[in-house]
Design brief:
With about 425 residues, the protein is α/β, with parallel strands linked by helices. About 40% of the residues lie in helices and about 15% in strands. The strands form 6 sheets. The protein has a 7-stranded mixed beta sheet, sandwiched between helices. Strands 15-16-19-18 form a 4-stranded antiparallel beta sheet, covered by helices on one side. The chain has a two-stranded antiparallel ribbon with strand order 1-10. The longest helix is centred in the first third of the chain and has 21 residues. It binds ligand C6P. Ligand C6P binds next to helix 3.
Length: about 425
């Protein structure tokens, strides 16, 4: 684990991770007449009751627009929205709330960075360094801005274990590298990248660093100042919040220096037909009516995570991943894709002779939700020579019963297809 991914420890924090499952109402249901074993949290995690309550409260009592009305509901909506920003700032330890830009999610956060940062700093012959384990949302926006500016996209290879090839990273990083963008935790492999080390190297080469933190936030305590990343992108719905809300953290001086991403209301100070002046941070990057209810939900998700001892959470999730890895080895015909030394909560695998989609369908019949496919990481599939994998992904609410139920489903799949 990178040094900047620290575990929070205090007596007041919750260490009994198993006790948290009861906070998630969706997990109490039965699916296909079986208890639900939800092993698809990397796609989207479930919400605890406190997040659901915050969403309902916002919609039922405070619904209005923000930063506009002087009436009571408008003030309450603004308060809910801005207090969520402050809680997110505090949670990731950003220096100022000016550095927390609300977006629709990681995808929009990276598109904002690629368009505004990449568009203003890249020119022909420059390079953007990414890795072979990126999600499409950390490939395509860079590809698009490279096409526009004449810069080159350079992917760093990964090893057979699914780790960044650090020698190749050192070799490919050079004076033409203007931006380094990498995933903190891989959604397709589970690899936890040594973020602090990569950021330090990139900065030494003079590059600006954008980190895709979508999968890190629910599993690691992220401190953006300790990491010293320039930008950090994440999504509410992968960290026990709602969909449609996310964050782009950016260092204030960089956000000040780059142009807005979208034009419209809220992001302006003055508009005339001759000239528009832009609003202060972070509003310069928040054109239009934002997702106020989503922000209220994300604020509640951050409150929820703030109460948890991350050393205990990591121990719980590592033990569960080890247990699942061991149980999967009972099937001589299963291969795990992604065997990095530092992994977080993702078990991606293929079973000889059975397509991943069939695996997914059969285990669904056993009440188990896994994701199958390329996981929006086609270059990872290409690297490992598979069209698709089945992926079980864990969150703090999962337990060994969920894994046992998965194994029952897999056994049914193997019996049916072989
Ligand atoms: N991965 C998965 O099943 P959005 O869709 O914008 O909230 O997040 C995009 C994204 C970016 N980076 C990483 C590492 C991700 O895992 C994801 C989303 C989901 O793995 C859906 S494809």
């Amino acid at each position: 684990m990178s040094a900047a991914v620290t575990s929070n420890a205090s007596d007041a924090l919750i260490t009994d991770i198993a006790s948290l499952r009861g906070d998630f109402p969706a997990l109490r249901q039965r699916v296909h007449n079986r208890p639900l074993a939800y092993l698809d949290s990397a796609a989207s995690s479930q919400c605890p009751q406190t997040v659901i309550d915050a969403i309902v409260r916002q919609q039922s009592q405070n619904h209005s627009n923000v930063h506009r009305g002087v009436h009571q509901l408008g003030e309450r909506a603004t308060m809910a929205y801005e207090s969520a920003r402050e809680r997110v700032r505090d949670y990731v330890n950003a220096a100022s709330e000016h550095e927390i830009v609300f977006t629709r999610g990681t995808t929009e956060s990276i598109n904002l960075a690629a368009t505004s940062l990449g568009g203003s700093m890249l020119s022909a012959g420059d390079e953007v360094l990414i890795t072979w384990m990126e999600h499409h949302s950390n490939i395509v926006p860079w590809q698009m801005i490279c096409e526009k500016t004449g810069a080159h996209l350079v992917p760093v290879p990964i090893t057979d274990a699914g780790e960044i090839d650090l020698e190749a990273f050192d070799r490919l990083l050079n004076e033409r590298t203007k931006i380094v963008a990498f995933v903190h935790v891989s959604n397709a492999l589970g690899t936890v990248n040594p973020a602090r080390e990569l950021i330090e190297k990139a900065h030494a080469a003079g590059a600006v660093v954008v980190v895709d933190g979508a999968q890190a936030m629910p599993h690691r305590r992220v401190d953006v100042r300790e990491l010293d990343c320039d930008f950090y992108a994440f999504s509410g719905h992968k960290m026990f919040g709602p969909t449609g809300i996310g964050v782009l953290y950016g260092k204030e001086r960089l956000l000040e220096a780059i142009p807005p991403y979208q034009g419209g209301g809220e992001m302006i100070l003055t508009v005339s037909f001759e000239r528009t002046t832009y609003n202060a941070l972070p509003y310069k990057f928040e054109a239009g009516t934002p997702n106020i209810t989503g922000a209220a939900g994300l604020g509640a998700a951050v409150d929820y995570l703030s109460r948890i001892d991350f050393a205990a959470l990591e121990a719980h999730e590592t033990a569960l991943l080890d247990y699942a890895t061991e149980r999967l080895s009972e099937f001589g015909c299963a291969s795990i894709i992604g065997t990095a030394a530092d992994k977080a909560s993702v078990l991606s695998f293929v079973i000889d002779g059975i397509h991943a989609h069939d695996v997914g369908t059969i285990v669904d019949g056993a009440g188990v939700a896994v994701r199958t496919g390329h996981h929006c990481a086609m270059p990872v599939m290409e690297r490992f020579g598979v069209p698709a994998t089945a992926r079980a992904s864990f969150a703090l609410y999962n337990n060994e019963d969920d894994v046992d139920q998965l194994i029952v489903g897999l056994r049914q799949a193997v019996e049916l297809f072989r």
